[in-house]
Amino acid sequence: MSDTSTAAPHWPIAAAMINFPGTLPDGSAVHDQPVETWLDTLQQVADAGFDYLDPTDSWIRVADLDEARQTEFQQLLSEVGLTLGGISTARRSVIDREHGLEYLAYAHRVIDTAARLGVADVSFGLFQALTEAQKQALWFWTAAGHVDSPDPESWQLAVSRFQDLAAHAEQVGVHISLEMYEDTYLGTADSSVRFLHDIGSAHVWLNPDIGNLQRLHRPVEHWQAMIEKTVPHARYWHVKNYFRTEDATTGTIVTAPAPMELGVINYRMAVRLAIAAGFDGTFLCEHYGGDGLSVSATNREYLRRILPGRSPRRS
Known about the structure:
Blueprint lengths: L3 H4 L5 E4 L22 H9 L4 E3 L12 H14 L2 E2 L2 E2 L11 H18 L3 E4 L7 H5 L15 H21 L2 E5 L9 H11 L4 E4 L3 H4 L8 H8 L5 E4 L1 E6 L6 E6 L8 H10 L5 E4 L6 H15 L9
Parallel strand pairs: 1-2, 1-11, 2-3, 4-5, 5-6, 6-7, 8-11
Antiparallel strand pairs: 9-10
Helix pairs in contact: 4-6, 6-7, 7-9
């Protein structure tokens, strides 16, 4: 193995923007502010040592900026030394009963925006809006949320809508990754792989964000089994970790966010398994709670220490 001290930093590792609110204290949306007002936030990301950023649409919806504002945004990124590593969406399921068609149209705009801005990867999911109980909880994953219908027709609707998006993505040279998330059709490793196979497109991959599952206060499949099943299909990977304690005598399960190298998922092993299976994509660092940006930066340095020394970037 070559020296990772010089080569590994070139592996694309992006910062997620989940740690920055999308709503200002006066109730206005960050998305609607003048582009130059985003400079301070972007400078914080650059100062944390990141070269890549995912705008993450809980902060701003880059696909809903007009072309002039998209160009201004890209110029601002360049000014602080950042490059878009991908575009992720959250809680905009294409099979949402009320907003599904609206979110499908939005997903098409995300694909076009990625192509226009030269971004190779977008991430979509089937998770939906937080329930009131989730909004009130300290950690939203400890309260019950949306559950996808077991109806085969609903599964097929989701498949067909992603097939539609896949055809579009192929036309413009963008790749879609589907984010694993509890109680959706991407809620287990087996279901995720089956869903991917039903879509049947070379431009649709998995985002094996198994942290979303390992944090649940319920029995889940062992993280290593999840990784072995999903990483052969992975391209854009949201990474985060959790402390997880299971009391076999009482059945009590407790979790909390953890730095990547300290949590229940052994990312040294997970990353090696992924690379052995052919993974050469981008990592997106996420962390909930506390100074999530700084923890994400710590996680970036951990990844750089454990990654092999070669430049992997796919087009």
